[in-house]
Specification:
Strand 2 and strand 3 form a beta hairpin. It is globular and about 55 Å long. It is 31% helix and 8% strand. The chain has a single domain, classed as Cytochrome p450. It has 172 residues and is α+β, with helices and mostly antiparallel strands. A two-stranded antiparallel sheet has the order 1-4. Strands 2-3 form a two-stranded antiparallel ribbon. Bound molecules: protoporphyrin IX containing FE (HEM). Belongs to the cytochrome P450 family.
Length: 172
């Protein structure tokens, strides 16, 4: 939600997809979740930029540095850009080592399917039934994206957003 509120283009695109699929089916339901190609890319991109459980001890680089000057695996690696996963063969199975939000190998997360379903379904509900805006006239560039490390990584500042109920019946 934080990445999408920072980029209204992505929010709009994900919302349009969710509303098209679920309005047609007349309800939000997990059986249609695989039709949400863009929303799934949003979740993938979120787990790329913000892995909930980075492996090993977390470290932070003390200096700005450039490694070989050429991003080998990701184009514009720091950018939140879900489109990079559309039509990509990279999945969650841990066979692409540049993307292992659930780990890899024998100890890969056994709860990934359940975890993803919860995230995707919850996000679908939030996008389908509400429009979202920042409080107090806050600008999206002002949103603090600092993360803190614990057992899992999370936002340092809680995210406050204003939901505006949406119903296709009341739109013009
Ligand atoms: C989006 C949600 C989730 C993320 C991002 C996530 C991520 C991870 C990661 C990165 C690991 C370490 C894998 C490794 O050592 O290579 C892990 C392990 C594990 N996860 Fe998850 N997980 C999620 C949801 C869940 C859920 C819903 C469950 C249980 C219902 C679960 C159960 C476990 C267990 C038991 C392990 C330890 C596996 C082992 O060491 O053999 N996870 N998870």
């Amino acid at each position: 939600m934080a990445e999408m509120i920072r980029d209204p283009r992505v929010m709009k695109k994900a919302q349009t997809e969710v509303r098209e699929v679920f309005n047609e089916k007349e309800r939000v339901d997990e059986i249609y979740i695989n039709e949400l190609k863009y929303l799934k890319s949003v979740v993938k991109e979120t787990l790329r930029l913000h892995p909930a459980a980075p492996l090993l001890l977390q470290r932070e680089c003390g200096h700005v540095c450039e490694i070989n000057g050429d991003p080998k695996y990701w184009i514009e690696p720091e950018r939140f850009y879900p489109e990079r996963f559309m039509d990509s063969s990279i999945d969650y199975k841990g066979s692409n080592f540049e993307y292992i939000p659930f780990g890899a190998g024998r100890r890969i997360c056994p709860g990934s399917t359940l975890g993803l379903l919860h995230v995707e379904l919850t996000l679908s509900f939030l996008l389908c039934h509400f429009d979202w805006k920042l409080p107090n006239g806050m600008n999206c560039e002002e949103l603090d994206m600092t993360e803190i490390f614990g057992v899992t990584v999370r936002r340092k500042q809680d995210l406050y957003l204003i939901p505006i109920a949406y119903s296709p019946l009341f739109t013009t």
